[in-house]
Design a protein that fits this description.
Layout lengths: L3 H5 L24 H13 L38 H26 L15 H15 L14 H4 L5 H4 L4 H15 L6 H13 L6 H19 L9 H14 L6
Helix pairs in contact: 3-10, 7-8, 7-9, 9-10
Subunit structure: Part of the core SMN complex.
Keywords: Cytoplasm, mRNA processing, mRNA splicing, Nucleus
Subcellular location: Cytoplasm; Nucleus, Gem
Length: about 260
């Protein structure tokens, strides 16, 4: 007799055995292709049509956190990993920023820069460090944020990644500046100026990523995870920024981690 499933769904590989089906040995190896196909059909008919997973609701936490997986990175200490909803919101915001930059790149690149904005030459690594981070951070005299300066001097506190600036950078320059800042970050602590530029440069990267970008982004995530693991308090002002960068690398640019 045919099963209900066989009545509703015709077989892709119909096999007719007739009376010989009664002598089919399910415990032994099939003697020919027909016996093999019949064994598969009989085994399938014994499987339940609906399988329900047994889940204990008491083991589910109301507020779950997901540690974004980054190959080679140190896991976040207990309580230092952001919630899944926070990560999803940051990825959504980052996607909006990327789309805005792409859409308005030509408009902003045509805008005239202020007279005090002197962008370094492409190969001037030290010049880019001074330009992005400011002389105080570059020289190690202070890591204070720009907002604390009574008289704002971008040469001292670093030029923010204004759209009029980053829109002028082609992909080669974006990647080169990103590599310069990540290399600087490898031996120093996190500062707000660095975070702003890293975020902006990641937003300017075009997909698919170049192989050089893969290596740089992995390096960035590892360094952020290393600093995060050394934090002593969940209230540390560096934690949200470090989590943000790790989140973007792991969730928005996952191909870079393969």
């Amino acid at each position: 007799m045919k099963s209900d499933v066989e009545e509703l769904m015709p077989r892709l590989l119909p096999v007719e055995f007739g009376a010989s089906a009664e002598h089919l040995n399910m415990n032994g190896p099939p003697r020919n292709p027909q016996e093999y196909l019949r064994q598969v059909q009989l085994e399938a008919s014994l499987c339940p049509e609906v399988v329900v997973a047994q889940i204990d609701p008491k083991k589910l936490k109301k507020k779950q956190t997901v540690n974004a997986s980054v190959a080679g990175c140190q896991a976040a200490p207990m309580g230092f990993c952001p919630s899944l909803s926070w990560q999803q919101q940051q990825v959504s915001n980052f996607s909006d920023v990327r789309q805005s930059i792409t859409k308005n790149r030509q408009h902003w690149s045509r805008q005239t820069l202020d007279d005090n904005v002197l962008m370094p030459k492409l190969t001037d690594e030290e010049g880019w460090k001074r330009f992005c981070l400011g002389e105080k951070v570059y020289l190690g005299t202070s890591s204070c944020d720009a907002e604390s300066e009574p008289a704002l001097d971008y040469n001292k506190v670093g030029f923010p990644p204004f759209l009029t600036i980053v829109s002028r950078l082609n992909q080669s320059t974006v990647l080169m500046v990103l590599e310069i800042l990540i290399s600087w970050f490898e031996e120093r602590t996190f500062v707000p100026q660095l975070g702003r530029w890293l975020y902006a440069l990641l937003a300017c990267l075009e997909k698919p990523l170049l192989p050089e970008a893969h290596s740089s982004i992995r390096q960035l995530a590892r360094r952020c995870a290393q600093l995060r693991s050394a934090l002593e308090s969940q209230e540390d002002e560096q934690l949200p920024a470090l989590n943000l960068l790790i989140c973007l690398v792991a969730r928005y640019l996952p191909n870079s981690l393969n």
